[in-house]
């Protein structure tokens, strides 16, 4: 019994140490979100506070119009494990995303995603009420927590490092581009078996949609452009390769409709052909140079890791195990030519290997082996 208490105490201490290390070097905004989320958890024991802080579809729209709940619902969690997940995700954002975007852009992303999740989730339950006339969908459903923002973070990670391998499974590799759809599917499964509330799948789905729309079309970059028009960040890329053509047809149709409503801008690729001494320079607006440099660094890192696995065997070492007994040859580049014989070479058959630096090395060749280009 005493050992169990000691283990529990050590585990609690370990968790505290890890959380402290995670938040130690983060910005003030990240610490503020984590602290407010932690203290708002204790308000979950008061029903009046839950009703006042969370988004209730029946009170969110007129005539009640509790619009402030769109800014407060994200800080309220009912379960303590959800608080821990929120703190970890927000802390990781401070470590991974904030250095690339900056504190202001990260807070902008936080506010836009949560505000969009509140509005779209409330509209979804209002639509369900219009179809079922069930008043519980309006007044008994309380939307709260950072589930939508957590889903938005998965989209941001997909944008930054889409091909980063997380784990290998029997059916293939799981990369960052698979996380958003996996999160949605997993939340639906957990809701069906009763481990999650019904609002969580709704918030996660809305978080993925809102974050993708913002990052795709509206995020402001330092070069004055907006959005990310990369081909690997289209909406169909969230789905498996088999479903991508069908999803592309539907998403492109919706996109054209939104362009006509002037809610989205049409993708325009401009090519600036400029004469240069070494060739032609092509500039495509809409792509952040920082993102291009980041992707280039990732590609260089992957290339260096592959090259490091290749065994660099010196040219001389491949033939150093050969014995005496055959005429001498000279290897120059990829051409194998007989060497001039001398009295010494007749007694001790050797091969002269010319290295790229210009120096020659004599090695022995066994009498019954004829050197060939494949040995070099």
From TrEMBL:
Keyword line: Membrane, Transmembrane, Transmembrane helix
Polar residues biased stretches: 316-335, 362-376
Domain of life: Eukaryota
InterPro entries the record matches: Rhomboid-like_sf, TMEM115/Pdh1/Rbl19
Membrane topology: Multi-pass membrane protein
GO biological process: retrograde vesicle-mediated transport, Golgi to endoplasmic reticulum
GO cellular component: Golgi apparatus; membrane
Keyword check for Kinase: no
Entry's transmembrane regions: 21-45, 65-94, 106-127, 139-157, 178-196, 202-219
Localization, UniProt: Membrane
Record-given protein name: Transmembrane protein 115
Organism: Bemisia tabaci
């Amino acid at each position: 019994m005493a050992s169990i208490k000691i283990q529990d105490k050590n585990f609690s201490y370990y968790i505290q140490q890890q959380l402290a290390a995670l938040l130690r070097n983060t910005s003030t905004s990240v610490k503020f979100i984590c602290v407010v989320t932690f203290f708002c958890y204790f308000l979950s024991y008061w029903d009046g506070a839950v009703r006042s802080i969370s988004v209730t579809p029946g009170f969110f729209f007129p005539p009640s119009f509790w619009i402030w709940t769109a800014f407060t619902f994200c800080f309220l969690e009912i379960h303590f494990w959800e608080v821990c997940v929120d703190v970890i995700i927000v802390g990781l954002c401070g470590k991974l995303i904030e250095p690339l975007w900056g504190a202001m852009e990260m807070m902008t992303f936080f506010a836009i995603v949560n505000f969009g999740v509140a509005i779209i989730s409330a509209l979804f339950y209002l639509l369900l009420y219009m179809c079922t006339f069930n008043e519980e969908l309006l007044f008994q459903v309380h939307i709260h927590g950072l589930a939508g923002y957590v889903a938005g973070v998965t989209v941001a990670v997909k944008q930054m490092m889409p091909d980063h391998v997380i784990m290998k499974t029997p059916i293939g590799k799981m990369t960052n581009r698979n996380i958003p759809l996996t999160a949605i599917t997993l939340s639906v499964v957990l809701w069906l078996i009763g481990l999650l509330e019904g609002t969580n799948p709704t918030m996660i789905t809305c978080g993925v949609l809102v974050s993708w729309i913002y990052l795709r079309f509206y995020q402001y970059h330092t070069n004055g452009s907006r959005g990310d028009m990369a081909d690997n960040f289209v909406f169909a890329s969230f789905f498996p390769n088999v479903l991508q053509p069908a999803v592309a047809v539907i998403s492109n149709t919706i996109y054209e409709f939104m362009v006509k409503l002037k809610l989205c801008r049409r993708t325009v690729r401009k090519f600036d052909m400029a004469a240069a001494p070494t060739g032609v320079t092509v500039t495509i607006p809409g792509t952040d140079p920082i993102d291009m440099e980041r992707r280039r660094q990732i590609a260089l890192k992957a290339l260096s890791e592959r090259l490091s696995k290749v065994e660099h065997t010196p040219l001389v070492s491949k033939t150093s195990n050969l014995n005496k007994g055959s005429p001498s040859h000279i290897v120059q580049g990829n051409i194998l030519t007989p060497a001039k014989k001398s009295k010494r070479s007749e007694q001790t058959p050797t091969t002269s290997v010319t290295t790229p630096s210009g120096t020659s090395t004599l090695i022995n060749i066994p009498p019954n082996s004829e050197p060939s280009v494949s040995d070099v």
